[in-house]
Structure formats: structure tokens, C-alpha cells
Give the backbone structure.
Amino acid sequence: MFSLSSIQGKMVAAIGLTILLILTALGLTLNVVSNINKSFDSYRDINAKRVEALNTMYGQGLLGGMASRNKIFNPSLTQPEQVINSTNKNFDEAFAFYAQSSREIGIDLTEELGFIGDKWTLVKQARLDIFQLSHTGRPDDAAQVLVVTEQPAFNPLRRKLDELLAREAELVVEARAVVQE
């Protein structure tokens, strides 16, 4: 029927080869687009939630500290107890999520998470002590707990959260570079 030695055979072979090359190029393009889409999904599903967890820890930590100070300065306030309990719970949940997601994606943050966990335990207990002391009419003792325990524990915790936020930003830059390759 068609022989490659004839012009008609050569034309059919050239058209067939052209179609095959176009389909291969289309397949590769769709594969690359799919990988880029997966990278964005990974960022949205994993990295963005991890950054959100760090920001939650940071913000809830600061808010709980403000509530503790407000209770010292005005012991008759009732709102700080709710705020302290809420911020403790929110921080704990965000911390647990961040720790779990770090393990899931294979990032070893054992040292950093241990440091944050230890400092947070001190801060959390100090804030509860501050509330209790202020509530029982001992604001000077509460202020002492703030100065001696809570603040010295929270400041390095906050700096460690800053470091982890910077690390997450680096991971995003690395992921972007991989996508652009």
C-alpha cells in the first residue's frame, strides 16, 4: 500500500512523526503544569498551614501576656481569665499541629520543638499563677512572677518562633526555585 520510497509514503510518515512529536510535547507540558499545580497545592495544604500555626503561637503568646499584665494592673478584671485559657488552648493546638506536620514532611525540629515546649510550659504555668495571685489580691507577687518567670521564658520562645518563621520562608523560596526549574 504505502511505501516509504514513494512520495505519498514519505508524506504520511512525516505527518505521523509530526503528530507524534506534538503529542509528546503536549504530554510533557501537561506533566510540568501538573507538577507545578501539585507544588502549589503542597504549599497551600502544608506550608501555609505551618506558617499559620507559627503565627498563631506567636500571636496567642503575645495576647496571653497582655491579658496577664492587664490582670496585674487591674485585678478586678474578669476577661483575662478567659483570654489566658483561650490563648493557652490555641497555642497548644497550633504547637501540636506544627510538631506533627514537621514529622510528616520529614523535618527534624526536635531541638527547637523541645525548647519551645519547655519554655511554653513555664510561661503557661506562670500566667496561671499571675492570674491566681492577682485574683487573690496579691498583685505585687503576681508582678514578681511576671518579671522573674513569665517574661524571661517568653522572650526566648518568641525569638525561636521568629527563627522558625524565617526557616519556613526559606522553605517557600526553595519550593519556588524547584517549581521554576
